[in-house]
Amino acid sequence: MKLLGQPNSINVRKVLWTCAELGLAPEIETWGGDRGSTHDQEFLTINPKGLVPVLLDGDLTLSESNTICRYLATRENRAGLLPADPEKRALVESWMDWQAAELNGAWKAAFMGLVRKDPNFSDSEIQLASVRTWNAQMALLEEHLASHDPYICGANLTLADIVLALSTNRWEMTPMEKPILPNIANWMERLSKRPGFRAHCRNGVP
């Protein structure tokens, strides 16, 4: 098994944390940044989307980080991380989909402008609008945790916790005004007891 990407990439890190929970240690082949452009033809032949991570497992080539996490949990028959029961599984996947579609979309201008210093996102009004939307999405997560702790889907850690914790770490580390959200803070503290969290979530890289 081989994982293509940069170990400091947020989407690669969620796969690495999932692997840690599963006891898997895929070979890491670094792509992106100064270690080989994902727009090189060699990489595009593997993944025409030009994005990391990519999982190579035998004859399977798989992209999209949340999909890779679901595949690995199913491959290892770990129903704790991704339940076999259709209703319980759907709840986990709904939060994973929300993370990818809504939460990730909220932070783009704020993160790219304030952290990456991308000139395409230098407009302060656009950054402020992104901060407001991002904080509103995090407040939604805070309200959910008020009645569903200790984890996103109840009593057990699932893939929903892994992907949302990576997003929360990015929110925590972005230099912007943000509300105090105690339920999220307590949830992150509980997660910090896990080796995979310490290695791949709060590892000092935004």
Automatic annotation (TrEMBL):
It holds the Pfam family GST_C. Residues 85-206 form the GST C-terminal domain. GO terms for molecular function: transferase activity. Keywords: Transferase. Residues 1-80 form the GST N-terminal domain. Belongs to the GST superfamily. This is Glutathione S-transferase family protein. It comes from Nisaea acidiphila.
